[in-house]
Design goal:
Four copies of one chain form a homotetramer.
Chain A: H1 7-29, H2 37-58, H3 64-83, H4 88-99
Helix pairs in contact in A: 1-2, 1-4, 2-3, 3-4
Chain lengths: ~100, ~100, ~100, ~100
């Protein structure tokens, strides 16, 4: 199985990573950063695991299911946190995270 | 400046990372792995720095030019090594790397 | 809970990452690289997940148990592969990996 | 040149990464998070590049000087930001960062 077989999941991971990093960046610029502290933290966790899994899939890792399960749990937590905040970047992030929850 | 502004470079980095990881994976499966040792090594270096820069751009890093310069140097070295090998995955990798050499 | 609480596991992860990266580097320089292909692949997987978990612990990730479980599985696979090879770097790597298998 | 040759720098990088991640975690828990936004951002940048360079040295990267230069610049920026804040975690972080500035 090569990286082509995972093309769809790789694209979703990539979009989620991008959105989480953007949300992280935007949260740090918000007026009320304190309210966003957990969002900042989970955005980073989520971006990092999505980036990790994306790279791992691309290099033919034998640990797809183990890593995908962790990634889904982190995406779920991040999405749940983002959903609480009305900022566009948070709402968009919640949507992207949801796509990776199994 | 937000992640939208870097959309084009982010996509190129992403494509390069994907191609390097695929080349790494394919090189490890080649009949003559020994000949591919330097290619395996540089594919990893290049995939890692492209992934790093892509994430950094996405989170609004203040160190764009410094990181982009290192990335260009690693892409150049990886592309030069890949170019030496006739495998399709190496030739494709050489092409992608070249796009990131300034 | 802060990073001090995980000091012992962090040190073990760090030692394992270092040993895996050294084994990866040494395997790529071996005379018979082809025999080492799976070792090279798993050394990278293992170094990457150990580095990831180490950083995650250090930044107070809420996903300790999920990540630790994946890490243990990858360490086990890497240790099992390394154990097959008589090179000193492989045997040392097998030992370090074993310390992280739950 | 193997990973033993870089043992001292690897340990300094490791200590800096740990301290930056701890400072990042602690800043997110501070009462006045807004004041710490730039510190949070730079702690992450600095932890990530230190972790990256540490791994790269461990696997015999051919790009030591290029990566070390970027790392020194990011450490300098992070240390300068941390120095402005009186929290213990910031002051300790400033000290560690300074050790990596060439």
């Amino acid at each position: 199985m090569s990286h082509e077989n995972y093309q769809s999941i790789i694209e979703t991971l990539h979009e989620c990573m991008t959105t989480c990093n953007h949300c992280y960046d935007a949260c740090l610029k918000e007026e009320h950063v304190k309210m966003m502290a957990q969002c900042i933290r989970l955005d980073r966790e989520c971006a990092d695991i999505c980036a990790y899994l994306e790279q791992a899939l691309g290099r033919g890792t034998p640990f797809v299911s183990e890593l995908a399960q962790v990634c889904a749990e982190i995406c779920e937590a991040c999405g749940n946190e983002c959903k609480k905040h009305s900022h566009d970047h948070c709402q968009k992030c919640a949507e992207e995270c949801k796509k990776l929850v199994s």
